[in-house]
C-alpha cells in the first residue's frame, strides 16, 4: 500500500494534502450518564472508519465529548479528529466529507494552514466570516459539528443534498447527541427521556445552538443556506472555464460537458485508489468514461477498476462489459444468486436504517458489490451515477408528466428528498464496508446549471427519458452509442433477466413469509406508513426488530407520480411493459 500511495502522490503533481475520506462522527453535549458507558454507542458506526478511533472530552465540560472513526489516508497525526489548531484553541471540529475547493479558498484568503486536512478550511472561514458564510463557501459534501467554546456556541451543518449523513437527538432539558448514523444514537441513555427521539438532520441547513455552562444546549435557529437550483456562492472562487450565455442547444450542451468534466476532476481529491460502479446504464457509464479520461490526464499509473453486479444473463452485466471494453477499464463482474440476495436483506435493512421498498430492493446489489470491493481489491474511493435520475428526469414515470413545469417541480422534490432514498442507499451500502462514495451528478455547479435550463429542454423527448443528457454526449464517443441511448431499466431489475426479475424473486419469497391474516392486521400493527404489500410488510418487520418505534425516520414511501401505482417498481408501469415486449 505504501508503494501505491507514493505513486499516487507523484502522479497528481500536487503538494501532499490529507483529505478526510469517509468516516464516522459522533458527539454528546450535556450527557447525564457516564460518558464511558455512552461512548459504547459510538462503536455502532465503527464500519465508517475501520482504521482508527478517538474519543475526546471537551476541556471544561466534563459531560461533553467527541467520537471519531477514521478511514486512514496518509498522515496519522493530522488525520484524527476533532480537529484543533493553535490559532483557534477554542474551536473543535468533527466532520465527515470532502471540501473540494479548500486549496483555492486557502490561497484566495491567504489562510495559514497548520494541518494537511481539507476540513481545516471550515475553521478559518468561520473565524473570518461566521457560520453562514462558511457553509455557503464549501464546495463539497459534508456533515459537521463545530464547537466554539469562546462564544459558547455549537453549530451543525449538512451539504445541499445530504450526501453525507447526519442524525441528531435533543431533549427538552438540552441534552444533544449527534452521529453520522442513527444506530449510534438509539441506545443512548438520558435520565429525563426513556425513549430518545432521533431524527435526520435536514440537508442544506445549518443549526446554531447556545452552549450553557452545564454543557447542555439550546437551539437558537435552523437556517436553510442553499437551494439546489441556486448557483452556490463558492462559484465566485472556482476555476471552471467561463460558460457561454443563452439557451441555444449547442451552447447548453457545451456548458454541460464543461461542468460535468469539472465535477469529475475535482473529485479526484484522494490518496487512495479510485474505482467506479458500472451498471451499464447511461449515468454510471458516463461517470466511468469521464473518470478514466481524467485519471489519464492526471497521469495516474494504476488502471481504473470498474465493478458490475448481476445474476447470470443480466442485462446490466452485458451492458457494463460493453462499456468497460470501450473505455479500457480493469473490469470486475460479481455474480450472485437469489438465495444470496434474500439472505442479505436483514443486514441491508440494518445498514440502511429504512424500510422503504424500492430503497431496500436496489440496495442489495450495491451492498454485495461493496462487500466484494472491500474484500478483493484496494479501491476505496468509489464513483457512482447517483442523483442523475432525479436531476435529469430519468425515471420512467416522467413520460406521464402533465407539463414541463410539473416535471420540473417533481425533479426538485426528488432532489430535496434524496437523503431519504437514493443518497441514503448509496452512502450506507458502501460505508458498511469501509468505502467512500463520490457522486459527480450532484455537483453544485452542474446541478444548479441543469436546473436553470428552461423546463421544456429537460423533459423526455421522442419517448426517451434524459434526452438532453444523452444528446449532450452524442458526438463525444465517450461510451458506445447503444449504451448512450439505452432505455432505463426498472430500478434494480437490470441485475437480473426480464424473465426472472429481482422484483419477481422477491414477490415469490415474501409470499411464503407473510400471510393474508398478517396483511389484514397490518394497519393495526403498523398504523404509521402501513405497508400495502407483503414485501413492504416483510421489510417493516425486519426494520422494527432492529429499530423498534423508529418508523418515522421514513416520512413516506418512494412512489412514482401521475399514475395509479401501488408498487414503486417500474415493471408495473405501462411504458416499461410495452418497452419490454418490443
From TrEMBL:
L-glutamine binds at residue 118. One of its GO terms (molecular function) is asparagine synthase (glutamine-hydrolyzing) activity. Pathway: Amino-acid biosynthesis; L-asparagine biosynthesis; L-asparagine from L-aspartate (L-Gln route): step 1/1. NCBIfam families: asn_synth_AEB. The active site is at 23 (for gatase activity). Keywords: Amino-acid biosynthesis, Asparagine biosynthesis, ATP-binding, Glutamine amidotransferase, Ligase, Nucleotide-binding. CDD domains: Asn_synthase_B_C, AsnB. PANTHER family: ASPARAGINE SYNTHETASE (PTHR11772), ASPARAGINE SYNTHETASE [GLUTAMINE-HYDROLYZING] (PTHR11772:SF23). GO terms for biological process: asparagine biosynthetic process. This is Asparagine synthetase [glutamine-hydrolyzing]. InterPro entries: Asn_synth_AEB, Asn_synthase, Asn_Synthetase, AsnB_N, GATase_2_dom, Ntn_hydrolases_N, Rossmann-like_a/b/a_fold. It is an enzyme of class 6 (ligase). The record marks 386 as: Important for beta-aspartyl-AMP intermediate formation. Its EC number is 6.3.5.4. It comes from the Eukaryota. Residues 23-212 form the Glutamine amidotransferase type-2 domain. It catalyses: L-aspartate + L-glutamine + ATP + H2O = L-asparagine + L-glutamate + AMP + diphosphate + H(+). Pfam families: Asn_synthase, GATase_7. ATP binds at residues 277, 309, 384-385.
Amino acid at each position: 500500500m505504501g508503494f501505491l500511495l507514493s505513486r499516487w502522490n507523484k502522479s497528481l503533481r500536487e503538494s501532499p494534502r490529507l483529505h478526510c475520506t469517509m468516516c464516522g462522527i459522533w458527539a454528546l453535549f450535556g450527557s447525564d450518564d457516564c460518558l464511558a458507558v455512552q461512548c459504547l454507542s459510538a462503536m455502532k458506526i465503527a464500519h465508517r472508519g475501520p482504521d482508527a478511533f478517538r474519543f475526546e472530552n471537551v476541556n471544561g465540560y466534563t459531560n461533553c465529548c467527541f467520537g471519531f472513526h477514521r478511514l486512514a489516508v496518509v498522515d496519522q497525526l493530522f488525520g484524527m479528529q476533532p480537529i484543533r489548531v493553535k490559532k483557534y484553541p477554542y474551536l473543535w471540529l468533527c466532520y465527515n466529507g470532502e471540501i473540494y475547493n479548500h486549496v483555492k479558498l486557502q490561497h484566495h484568503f491567504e489562510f495559514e494552514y497548520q494541518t494537511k486536512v481539507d476540513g481545516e478550511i471550515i475553521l478559518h472561514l468561520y473565524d473570518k466570516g461566521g457560520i453562514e458564510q462558511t457553509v455557503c463557501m464549501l464546495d463539497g459534501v459534508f456533515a459537521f459539528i463545530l464547537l466554539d467554546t469562546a462564544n459558547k456556541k455549537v453549530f451543525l451543518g449538512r451539504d445541499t443534498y445530504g450526501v453525507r449523513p447526519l442524525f441528531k437527538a435533543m431533549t427538552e432539558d438540552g441534552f444533544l447527541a449527534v452521529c453520522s448514523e442513527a444506530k449510534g444514537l438509539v441506545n443512548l441513555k438520558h435520565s429525563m427521556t426513556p425513549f430518545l427521539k432521533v431524527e435526520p438532520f435536514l440537508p442544506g441547513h445549518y443549526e446554531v445552538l447556545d452552549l450553557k455552562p452545564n454543557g447542555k444546549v439550546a437551539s437558537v435557529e435552523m437556517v436553510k443556506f442553499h437551494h439546489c437550483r441556486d448557483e452556490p456562492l463558492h462559484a465566485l472562487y472556482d476555476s471552471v472555464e467561463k460558460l457561454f450565455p443563452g439557451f441555444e442547444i449547442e451552447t447548453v450542451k457545451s456548458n454541460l460537458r464543461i461542468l460535468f468534466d469539472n465535477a469529475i476532476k475535482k473529485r479526484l481529491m484522494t490518496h487512495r485508489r479510485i474505482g467506479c460502479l458500472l451498471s451499464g446504464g447511461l449515468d454510471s457509464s458516463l461517470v466511468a468514461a469521464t473518470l478514466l479520461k481524467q485519471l489519464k490526464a492526471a497521469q495516474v499509473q494504476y488502471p481504473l477498476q470498474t465493478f458490475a453486479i448481476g445474476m447470470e444473463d443480466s442485462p446490466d452485466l452485458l451492458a457494463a462489459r460493453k462499456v468497460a471494453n470501450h473505455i479500457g477499464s480493469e473490469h470486475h463482474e460479481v455474480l450472485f444468486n437469489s438465495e444470496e440476495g434474500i439472505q442479505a436483506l436483514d443486514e441491508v435493512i440494518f445498514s440502511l436504517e429504512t424500510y422503504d421498498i424500492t430503497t431496500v430492493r436496489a440496495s442489495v446489489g450495491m451492498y454485495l458489490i461493496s462487500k466484494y470491493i472491500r474484500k478483493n481489491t484496494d479501491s476505496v474511493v468509489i464513483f457512482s451515477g447517483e442523483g442523475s435520475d432525479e436531476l435529469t428526469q430519468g425515471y420512467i414515470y416522467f413520460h406521464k408528466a402533465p407539463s414541463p413545469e410539473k416535471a420540473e417541480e417533481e425533479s426538485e422534490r426528488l432532489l430535496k428528498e434524496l437523503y431519504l432514498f437514493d443518497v441514503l442507499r448509496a452512502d450506507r451500502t458502501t460505508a458498511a464496508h469501509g468505502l467512500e462514495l463520490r457522486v459527480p451528478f450532484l455537483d453544485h455547479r452542474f446541478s444548479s446549471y441543469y436546473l436553470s435550463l428552461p423546463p421544456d429542454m429537460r423533459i423526455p423527448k421522442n419517448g426517451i427519458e434524459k434526452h438532453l443528457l444523452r444528446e449532450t454526449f452524442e458526438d463525444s464517443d465517450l461510451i458506445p452509442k447503444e449504451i448512450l441511448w439505452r432505455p432505463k431499466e426498472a430500478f434494480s431489475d437490470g441485475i437480473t433477466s426480464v424473465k426472472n426479475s429481482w422484483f419477481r424473486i422477491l414477490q415469490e419469497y415474501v409470499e411464503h413469509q407473510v400471510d393474508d391474516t398478517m396483511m389484514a392486521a397490518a394497519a393495526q400493527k403498523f398504523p404509521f406508513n402501513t405497508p400495502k404489500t407483503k414485501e413492504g410488510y416483510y421489510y417493516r418487520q425486519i426494520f422494527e426488530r432492529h429499530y423498534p418505534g423508529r418508523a418515522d425516520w421514513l416520512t413516506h414511501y418512494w412512489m412514482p407520480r401521475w399514475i395509479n401505482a401501488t408498487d414503486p417498481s417500474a415493471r408495473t408501469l405501462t411504458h416499461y411493459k410495452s418497452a419490454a415486449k418490443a
